[in-house]
Amino acid sequence: MKNSSPLGMILALTVTAVVIGAILAGFYQLVEPRIEANRLAEEKRAIFSVLEGAETYDVIEREVPSDKKGGEIIRIFRGLDADGRTVGYAFIAEGPGFAGIIRMMVGLNFDLETLSGLKVMEQVETPGLGNKIGEEKFEGQFKGVAIRPRIEYLKNKKPVKPNQIQAITGATISSKAVVDAINKRVETILSVLGPQAAAGEG
Amino acid sequence: MTSQRTLFQEFKKGIWAENPVIKMLLGMCPALAVTNSAVNGLAMGLASTFVVICSSAIVSIIRRFVPGGVRIPTYIIIIAGFVTLADLFLRAYFPVISKALGPYVPLIVVNCMIMGRAEFFASKHPVVPSILDALGTGTGFVWVLVVLGSIREILGSGSIFGVTLLSERIYTPWVVMILPAGAFLSLGLLIALINYLTQRRQGAH
């Protein structure tokens, strides 16, 4: 082994770090557009899957107050049908699940009374239990569910009221996380859309 | 160390005799964490193989220029660089697999199998044997991960590579097999079986 002078060690580490850094920067430039395109394509798929009948959508951006300093910019995707009528609004809701952040696309009907769909985009819940939130059987329950007074979940019982869904057996925490995140986000979305939608109808 | 090993032996030893997972018990974290399905095991195996080959090659090339005192940090920078390349590549071209593997791709950096090859082999040998050594180790890693992933997927989900083998009507999946406990059970029993077979074969001679 070569004996190590301080200067030699500094030089070796610096050169290695600079060379590797340069290679990574170059490669990132190369693939970044593709990664971004993948992300957008996924977002687009999720929007159309929660807004039935939508042909196109436009984006509404609003700044809302939040816990973070300076507020938060939320994006609402307004789905439009072939005749340009609003079919509903899609937005992203996220919240802590059992194992990590659950991120999902939520569809709200144009009447702002019921949900039109749910698509879980990111989750790391327990395989075989909590990760069933990403299955059609669970997601499908949110289609047509009433958001007033708020969405509720039932354990091991079929829903009786229009604002109820059934939690996944053995994964109440994951189910609750989904419901809580949606309820919380719906409030914000309604506060943004409320006056606008009312003005449109009046 | 006898330097009379042929190049083919350098390649072959990682597959069985010095297999990183079942013989040396290296790289346990990915071997246990991501093998809940065969395809995840395969993807993790291939990504790790890419990293171990590239980093062993570079470590071998620069082995005369790196001062002993900073060799480990240097190896880590090199390994981290290739891991980031692999991560970006998966995110750009295989987004579904990238999502399934999640944080475990960046964690290849701390896979001791890769550090092990760099420190014990590549830093002391020329480039060609180092690459073959890494290739053999990587191959050994891939097959064990695919076998583990297959066992767990068949028992835990009733399918293999996403193709349903056992319909839910006749077979209730053992959910535990795709949970962390299933990883320990499968790996432990696999190693026990291999040790048993090895001992029996030695006993017969």
Keywords:
heterodimer; A: 202 residues; alpha+beta; two-stranded parallel sheet; 3 helices; 39% helix; 26% strand; globular; B: 205 residues; two-stranded antiparallel ribbon; 65% helix
Question: Summarize this, please?
Answer:
The complex is a heterodimer of chains A (202) and B (205). By secondary structure, chain A is of the alpha+beta class. Chain A contains 3 helices and 7 strands.
Secondary structure elements and pairings:
The complex is a heterodimer of chains A (202) and B (205).
Chain A: H1 6-50, E1 56-64, E2 72-80, E3 86-96, E4 101-109, E5 115-122, H2 136-139, E6 152-154, E7 164-166, H3 172-201
Parallel strand pairs in A: 6-7
Antiparallel strand pairs in A: 1-2, 2-3, 3-4, 4-5
Chain B: H1 7-12, H2 28-33, H3 38-61, H4 71-93, H5 95-101, H6 112-122, H7 127-157, E1 159-160, E2 163-164, H8 180-204
Antiparallel strand pairs in B: 1-2
What features would you describe in this structure?
The complex is a heterodimer of chains A (202) and B (205). Chain A is of the alpha+beta class and 202 residues long. Chain A has one domain. Chain A is 39% helix and 26% strand. Chain A is built from 3 helices and 7 strands; from the N terminus they run H-E-E-E-E-E-H-E-E-H. Chain A has a 5-stranded antiparallel sheet, sandwiched between helices. A two-stranded parallel sheet of chain A has the order 6-7. In chain A, strand 1 and strand 2 form a beta hairpin. Chain B has one domain. Chain B contains 8 helices and 2 strands, in the order H-H-H-H-H-H-H-E-E-H. Chain B has a two-stranded antiparallel sheet with strand order 1-2. In chain B, a hairpin with a 2-residue loop joins strand 1 and strand 2. In chain B, helix 4 crosses helix 5, helix 6 packs antiparallel against helix 7 and helix 7 crosses helix 8. The two termini of chain B are 26 Å apart. The mean pLDDT of chain B is 88. The interface between A and B is medium-sized, with 28 and 31 residues.
